[in-house]
Amino acid sequence: MKARLALAAALLALAPAARAGFQTADKATTGAQFLKLGGGARAEGLGEAYTALPEEADAMYWNPAGLTRIPHHCATVMHQALPAGINYEFAAYGQKVGTAVAAGASVQYLSQPSIDQTDSEGFATGSTFRPADFAAALGGAYTLHDEDFGIFDGSSFGATGKYISSTITKTASTFAGDVGFLSPAFPVLDRDMRVAYAATNLGGTLKFQQLSDNLPTNLRLGASWALAKGWLVAFDIDEPVDNTPYYAAGTEYRLEVNDDASFSGRFGLDSRALGDSGGLSGLSFGLGARFQSFGLDYAFAPMGALGMTNSLSLAFSF
């Protein structure tokens, strides 16, 4: 147990060191902002405090190391309705390959309503354009099973490579990658805890004509802790390249009805969005249900004067 806690402390020590240059002045200085929109309504209901929690195909977005927690095969699809008629879709698949290896794939797509095109003087040209964004990723993960690795015995490591395309009136594309780490469960006060670290959207730039935009690289340190049977809490520290560090926290209570059915309630807090648009922005709420190999999750997050986001996802295990 002491060794596992030392590992958690070492990961925590990485966070302040990574903050250099990550500040408010960098806000909105990156492109491909759709890459921040998440994957799976369970994570959205938990305020996106999810780095140490993935156990289904949504690990392709949050932490590829979590692919190793998939028992056999899993597929996840999500639809998210955003203000101003913007829609976001996420789909992922993951499976075990042997006892220690897992693999997965995912796609993200953001669509917007048509926009009237204007000339350099602001007059309508009679034409319209429709911005859209797309990303496709392939990934894999491996679990170490060797006592010679000490505290890392049982830990998982994962990585993905992704293709990213963004269209305004012209299209720009690039490649990027994610890497992740997930510890095995270890006891803290007789309850299971996991720690995790993920770095997402590494490398690549989107170049439109003469201007290039960096990708929204994000470094995340996370932990999850099972406080009691069916009840867990999660906490993440995020360090985006285009903003100051922020935290996310969430809790979930799962009621087991029988071996084949359970229902969950979730609450989350994302400090990045607190006060951005007034009202209850920064808070999120969610519900979930699991029936044998089928899962349904829903989340909503108020955005003050902008309305709210609604996320619905389905998960299939087989």
Overview of the molecule:
With 318 residues, the chain is mainly beta. It has one domain (2-119, 127-317): Porin, CATH 2.40.160.60. The protein is built from 3 helices and 19 strands. It has helices at 2-17, 41-45, 59-62, and strands at residues 73-82, 86-97, 101-111, 115-118, 124-129, 132-143, 156-167, 171-182, 186-188, 191-202, 205-208, 211-214, 218-228, 231-240, 246-258, 261-270, 283-291, 294-302, 308-317. The chain has a 14-stranded antiparallel beta barrel. β18 (294-302) and β19 (308-317) form a beta hairpin. The radius of gyration is 20 Å and the shape is globular. Mean pLDDT is 87; it is low at 12-21.
Describe the secondary structure blueprint for this structure:
Elements lengths: L1 H16 L23 H5 L13 H4 L10 E10 L3 E12 L3 E11 L3 E4 L5 E6 L2 E12 L12 E12 L3 E12 L3 E3 L2 E12 L2 E4 L2 E4 L3 E11 L2 E10 L5 E13 L2 E10 L12 E9 L2 E9 L5 E10 L1
Antiparallel strand pairs: 1-2, 1-19, 2-3, 3-6, 4-5, 6-7, 7-8, 8-10, 9-10, 10-13, 11-12, 13-14, 14-15, 15-16, 16-17, 17-18, 18-19
